């Protein structure tokens, strides 16, 4: 999750920005005038209008836009602003009586006074438009943040649901393995139950997070492979190469175990020796998992798995890594090969 606070949600920054903008607007004409400061003229022509503009801006920003414009009461909003602008125009005209004014020269071809009244009235639309624009942007930003948060919650729920499906699926497959050992070798069955206990502790207590250390996943896979070796010790050759990795390298939990399950499910024969190979390689940017096993399709009478493992895994990869991962599966010379490449987190 992105923990950086949005600019519009940080009230301290918003207040500071508003203060800076108004400070610049009030001080800019004073700074431009240099040594020729005419306080009366600046006050009449700039500061008092700015105060009225600020009043109109914030009345709309804090009150009118939310109560009327965003509530679909547009005629009321327009009427209230017309009355408000008329009132502010009268206040502006009234304040001019406090400042000495020179009579207009009659010989100059100046626009009629009605033109200046019209221009002054139009100028009040500027803070009104700014307040509507800023409020609309803030509202859009909040809506977008809420949409992203809802999408994130939905994504997490979907991932959690898929993991809850995977856990009983994995558990049932493991129980099938132990059941096969009970009559053949009770001692190995006991060892298997102990190993299964470690696997289930990891499933139940360590995988309820977005990412887990890759080393924990490797330990989990090694325990599972050892469990399978107890069952298929006579007719299977298992090779795996898993590196010792830093605790800082993390992956989504349970992204490799489905391939390992399928390798044992489809790559082991009771009539001949089979070979299964697993390998993990890591560089600065990517983690690559490779699985190679003999391809021995299951008999229709074999109900050892429901087939949901690969489907769920594909969904989880899409949800977690989106288009940042690469999954390739292919058959070559009666072997089934899997290559999964995911980014280092």
UniProtKB/TrEMBL annotation:
GO cellular component, one term: membrane
Molecular functions per Gene Ontology: phosphorelay sensor kinase activity
InterPro entries the UniProt entry points to: Bact_2-comp_sensor_kinase, HATPase_C_sf, Sig_transdc_His_kin_internal
Signal transduction histidine kinase internal region domain segment(s): 158-235
Keyword Kinase: yes
Keywords: Kinase, Membrane, Transferase, Transmembrane, Transmembrane helix
Protein origin, superkingdom: Bacteria
Coiled-coil stretches noted in the UniProt entry, renumbered to this chain: none
Transmembrane segments annotated in the record for this chain: 12-33, 45-64, 76-95, 115-134
PANTHER family reported in the protein's UniProt record: SENSOR HISTIDINE KINASE YPDA
Protein name as annotated: Two-component system-sensor histidine kinase
Record organism: Zunongwangia atlantica 22II14-10F7
Taxonomic lineage: Bacteria, Pseudomonadati, Bacteroidota, Flavobacteriia, Flavobacteriales
């Amino acid at each position: 999750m992105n923990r950086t606070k949005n600019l519009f949600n940080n009230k301290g920054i918003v207040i500071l920005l508003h203060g800076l903008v108004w400070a610049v607007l009030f001080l800019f004409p004073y700074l431009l005038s240099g040594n020729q400061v005419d306080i009366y003229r600046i006050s009449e022509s700039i500061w008092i209008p700015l105060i009225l503009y600020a009043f109109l801006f914030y009345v709309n920003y804090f009150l009118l836009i939310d109560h009327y414009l965003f509530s679909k009461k547009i005629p009321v909003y327009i009427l209230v602003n017309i009355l408000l602008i008329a009132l502010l125009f009268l206040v502006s005209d009234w304040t001019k009586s406090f400042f000495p004014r020179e009579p207009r020269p009659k010989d100059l071809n100046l626009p009629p006074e009605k033109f200046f009244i019209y221009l002054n009235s139009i100028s009040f639309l500027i803070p009104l438009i700014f307040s509507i624009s800023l409020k609309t942007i803030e509202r859009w930003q909040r809506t977008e943040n809420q949409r992203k948060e809802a999408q994130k919650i939905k994504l997490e729920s979907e991932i959690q649901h898929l993991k809850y499906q995977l856990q009983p699926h994995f558990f049932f497959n493991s129980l099938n393995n132990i059941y096969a050992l009970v009559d053949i070798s009770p001692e190995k069955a006991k060892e298997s139950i102990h190993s299964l206990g470690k696997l289930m502790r990891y499933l139940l207590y360590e995988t309820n997070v977005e990412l887990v250390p890759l080393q924990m996943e490797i330990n989990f896979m090694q325990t599972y492979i050892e469990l399978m070796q107890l069952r298929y010790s006579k007719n299977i050759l298992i090779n795996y190469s898993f590196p010792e990795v830093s605790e800082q390298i993390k992956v989504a939990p349970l992204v490799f175990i489905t391939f390992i399950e399928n390798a044992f499910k489809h790559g082991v024969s009771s009539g001949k020796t089979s070979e299964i190979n697993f390998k993990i390689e890591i560089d600065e940017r990517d983690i690559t998992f490779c699985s190679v096993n003999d391809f021995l399709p299951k008999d229709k009478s074999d109900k050892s798995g429901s087939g949901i493992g690969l489907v769920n895994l594909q969904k989880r990869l899409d949800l977690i890594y989106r288009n940042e991962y690469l999954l390739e599966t292919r058959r070559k010379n009666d072997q089934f090969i899997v290559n999964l490449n995911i980014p280092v987190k």
